[in-house]
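Worked Example 4.2. Consider the chain below.
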Amino acid sequence: MNRRDFNLSLGAAAVGAALGGQAVLAAATPAWSLEADIAECCSCAIPCPCNFGRPTEKMCEGNRLIRITQGRVDGAALAGIDFLVSFSMRKWTRIYVSDALGEAQYAAFERILPLAFTKFAEISRGVERVRLSVTRDAQTIRFATPASRVEMKLVAGLDGAPIRITGLPSPVFHDYVQYESVVHEHVSDGARWSHSGTNGFTSRMIAKSA
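Applying the procedure from the previous section yields the following structure tokens:
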């Protein structure tokens, strides 16, 4: 699985099921839709080729913050669900869910995870409820869990304006804005990295079931 497939799979359910046995499966799948704000740093140089549909064969280590701003799954509200996915591309993920979620929100998270974030769920080494802090100003975004820490700064374009990229081949990449990592760290069982000056971005994910 390359990174293009990895990102496309996050919105794959929006494409709808095919004919035959998949149609039966789709009938049993809860209806869902969501919009989420994304912030990510990875270990790739700027710009990350994976996000342009040209996946790297090199190691790609990343931290992706996902903050669902609106949506429902089988009638349950999704707004306010925040979580962080730490990943080694094509190998594993660790999913850290904000411990500020109430029980109803966490139940909705458990339902939406395998539907809208399929590949993240399939290769997950575990899901933990942890303290998740997020701060943001006009130039900088910071987010952290006990295992991961990210600080990313806006990359200035022409006349100091943000660099905005449209038309990227994934429903995860609406309103894509280029950032650069200042601090990009993760430590967990069997995994450790620290990067700076690598790719970062913000975007908006818009996806739904068929």
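The chain has a mean pLDDT of 90. The two ends are 24 Å apart (CA to CA). Compare this with Example 4.1 before moving on.
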